[in-house]
Structure formats: structure tokens, C-alpha cells
Amino acid sequence: FSGWWSDRTGRRKPFVIGGYGLSAFSKPLLALAAGWPFVLLMRLADRSGKGLRSAARDALIADYTGEKDRGKAFGLHRAMDSMGAVLGPLLALWFMSHYGESPEAYRKVFLWAFLPAALGVMLLFIVKERPFSAKFKKPSFGWGIFNKDLKVFLLVNLVFYLGNSSDAFLILRAKDMGLSMVTVILAYVLYNLVYSLASLPAGILADRLGKRRVFFIGLLVFSAVYFGFALLGDPKWIWMLFAVYGLYTAMTDGVGKAYVSVLVGESHRATALGAYNMIAGLAGFLASLAAGLLWTAL
Question: Fewest Cβ atoms closer than 10 Å to its Cβ: which of 122, 196, 216, 252?
Fold first, then answer.
């Protein structure tokens, strides 16, 4: 819905700033939590911020780049975002190794996490929105505004994400293979590191070979990784599997958004990107729910 509203108003920044701001201010408030209801409320605020900003932010990236460089632009964004996912857990591990794992230590972690988030929000005020190049038309709302190619791509993603459960199940699988929690965390950091380093090259490759082609190669990589997690029982394979999993994400996350952005005009861009994110989120939720039930039953 936020993507459609961004298109309708012709604005991107208010949604991006509001979304990042909501997520940023929910983090330090976790330090005040005295029970799970407040934690749940803050997590909902954080995820709501992500939903508010994502489509408008991705549309803003697309607005500033030509179609030939769209994969590169989204790849750079995903590289920088995932590098934060590398440094964040490492800093948290270092912090807890010095201050322990007491409730007070966790509160300090949440308070310190506010600083980079707040800095990011302040930097957003420097960004200038690019005016629409064509006469702006307020978009309608509904499936009919998308062309055939985009509808097919969204349908493919719906089918795929119905089989793509949360990464938490890969972490549980690694634990079942006998790895310690610290080792599992480091393996997941490796995944994010590969994801970060490969995102920009994957975006450049998508611009040269075709975004759809690179995206579907990424889906094949995903299938190979999940077969590996299912069939390989030796813990030594975990490092390779998480590393290759990083390649899958690099070849699909930013590339998929870049492909969606070239299939629609600028007046429907945030709406289309919002639909793409919505399908991934809802289908992924159903997949994770089903995976959780199967994990418990089996």
C-alpha cells in the first residue's frame, strides 16, 4: 500500500525517512522491555518501518538510474545493506564477549544500535528527489495496472516463495548437524559476507546478460543449496553451503527488484515494487509456517 501511495503522491522521501525513522527509534526502546509483549510491539514497529520504506526506497533508486545500469545500482545498495548485516553481528559478539550476556548487556547493545540507525536517517535528508520526467498521472490500484511480463514474473515469485521458508530453518539444520551456536552465527556471517561481495558483480552481470536470466540462475543455485542441506550430513559442508547461499541471494534480491523496475513506468514503479515485496513477504510467511509445522511433526 505504501508503494501505491508513493506513486499517487509523486513522493518518495517521506516514506523512506518515515520507514527508516520508525525502525531506528524502535531499537533503543527494546532496552526498556520488561516482557515479551513490549518486545513484540517494538518488533512490529521495526517491520512496519521496513514495509513503509522499501517500495519507495527501491523506486527512488530506480528513478535515479537508467535501465542499463539498474542492476548495478540495486546491486550496490544490496552490497552496502548486507555488509551492515556482517558487521552488526560481529560487533554484537565482540560487545557480549566483553560485557557478558546479562540483560543489562543486551540493553546496551540495543542502545548502541540506535546510533548508526539515527545517522542513516539524518543522511536521508540530504537526498533530493528526482522530478518525474513525464507528465504525472495518478495511478489506479489493482492487478490490471501491470503488463503481462510483470504479472508472469510476480506469479513465478509467488510459486517460488511458497517454497522458500525463513533462513532460521537453515540455522536449525546447522545446529542439528552438531555445530555450536557461535559457529553457526559465524557461518551465517559468511553468508552475508558473500552476499555483500557478490551483489554488485551480480548486478553488473544482470545488466549485461539480462536481469531475468541472472535471476533464474539464482533460483537454480537456491535449489542446489537446499538439496545440499537436506542430503549432506557432515558439518564441514556448512561453510560451503552458506557461502553458495550468499550467491543465490546476490543473484536474486537486487536483480529481481531491478527487473521489476524496468517492466513498469515511473508512475507505477513503487506500486509494482511494493507488490513484489508483498508477494515475497506473504508467501514466505506461509512457507515458514508450513516448514515449522513439518519440522515439529517430523
Answer: 122
